[in-house]
Amino acid sequence: MGSSHSALNFGAGPAKLPREVLAEVQTELLSYQDSGMSLMEMSHRGKEYTKINNDAQKAIRELLNVPDNYKVLFMQGGGTGAFAAVALNLMNRTGVADYAVTGTWSSKAAKEAAKYGKVNLVFPKADKPGSIPPESSWTLNPDASYVYYCDNETVDGVEFPFIPTSPHGVPIVSDMSSSIMTKKIDISKFGCIVAGAQKNIGPAGVTVVIIREDLLGNPMKICPTVFDFTVISQQNSVHNTPATFSVYVMEKVLQWIKKNGGLQAMENQSQDKSKLLYEEMENSNNFYSCPIDENCRSRINVPFRVGGPQGNEELEAKFLEEAEKLKMFQLKGHRLVGGIRASLYNAVTRDEVALLVKFMKEFRAQFS
Ligand SMILES: *Cc1c(COP(=O)(O)O)cnc(C)c1O
Predict the structure, then answer these.
(1) What confidence tens digit (pLDDT) does each residue in 306-353 have?
(2) Is the dihedral of CA 22, 53, 183, 298 positive or negative?
(3) Is the pLDDT of residue 1 over 60?
(4) Distance (Å, rounded) from C-alpha 33 to C-alpha 343?
(5) Could you say which of 16, 98, 105, 332 is catalytic?
(6) Banded model confidence at residue 223, pLDDT cuts 50, 70, 90
(7) Measuring CA to CA, which residue among 111, 161, 107, 19 is closest to residue 334?
């Protein structure tokens, strides 16, 4: 198995997967359940994949307590594909939609949606992400087809501390690519949830869509078939070849989450892990600083600057270099934001975060 001391992976996505899951995949890779074939080589309509497809849907339903009047779909095109798919499937009712832009991904989603209809920003886009205006100040359009927000801005480290609501009964749509399965959520508050798997629940290649049934059936005429929620739902996510291997690994990750205490355990653990980091920042006299308002700091992606609130790029480069010596990888902040970012997805353990914090203390002692 190569080096036994594996890397500490704080990457933002694709991201760390549970070792147990990868080891299981390894044992099955050449011969899936004594078939003499790899799952990768099997038909998406065969009995093996059909079971995986159904088991994965069932696990998502159980973990998230998905009500009966919602469908669970597996699609391709990533989170970015979903930006278009949401508009193409849901904007047809009125041709307009409300967007809460709180960072990089919701900004891209709003831009994509504007290709297909009228986008109304419910508050002005900030120059620098870092806060979420109070809901009472949002200008919601009663005619909007939906209200869109990104639950956790992966690049910027801004996480919604609440689920937006619409006084007009407009469906709420959320991009949960980086926060799905890290906390309990009430699915009944949503019209639609989209999530690329490669942050918390699997490898790249599959996008999970959870959608209320009454929102199906009204795609735009120009909606590509592979992005058509109604078609994908009617065909149980095998209208065309899905990312079978990605769904297979995702199914194992979902079972791993169940075995490890489900979403309550994931939520407790993520609170705990992020607290370790934010506490070190607080104790650091601004040597480490997080630019995000305290009420919306992400539990999942923690960005910070080193050497003062504006960041000292030399020190940050040194920080990354020293971290890599300790096998702590993928800590570089997003190229648009700079600085450092630690991503604490479900597979990242508390012990690993404690090691990172220990290193941060030592680095601070040496360089502050
Ligand atoms: C990663 C990410 C995306 C983009 O996903 P792709 O699969 O790269 O298209 C969109 N939204 C959020 C919140 C993400 O974290």
Answers:
(1) 999 999 999 999 999 999 999 999 999 998 889 999 999 999 999 999
(2) positive
(3) no
(4) 34
(5) 105
(6) very high
(7) 107
Regarding the beta carbon of 150 and ligand 1, being less than 6 Å apart is answered yes
9 CA to middle of ligand 1, Å?
A: 18
Mean pLDDT, the chain, whole residue set: 96
Tell me how far the alpha carbon of residue 197 lies from the centroid of ligand 1, in angstroms: 9
Distance CA 269, CA 182 (A): 9
Asked about 228 being catalytic, the answer comes back as no
Q: How confident is the model at residue 128 (pLDDT cuts 50, 70, 90)?
A: confident
Residues 176-198: what's their mean pLDDT?
A: 98
Which amino acid belongs to residue 322?
E
User: Could you identify the atom of ligand 1 that is nearest to the CA of residue 80?
Assistant: 9
Query: What local confidence, expressed as pLDDT, does residue 5 receive?
Result: 58
Is any atom of ligand 1 closer than 6 Å to the C-beta of 103? no
User: Is the domain defined by 22-259 classed in CATH 3.40.640.10?
Assistant: yes
Say whether pLDDT at 267 is over 70: yes
The question of whether 256 is a catalytic residue gets the answer: no
pLDDT of 214 strictly over 80: yes
Tokens describing residue 287: 């040597």
The residue contributing the CA closest to ligand 1 atom 4 is 79
Cβ(76)–Cβ(245) below 8 Å: no
Query: Which 8-state DSSP code applies to residue 170?
Result: P
Task: Judge whether 199 counts as a catalytic residue.
Answer: yes
CA distances from 182 to 6, 185, 345, 349 (A): 23, 9, 8, 13
Mean pLDDT calculated for residue range 51-71 = 98
Domain ranges in the chain? 22-259, 261-367
CATH architecture of 261-367: Alpha-Beta Complex (3.90)
Q: What is the number of the ligand 1 atom nearest to the C-alpha of 204?
A: 7
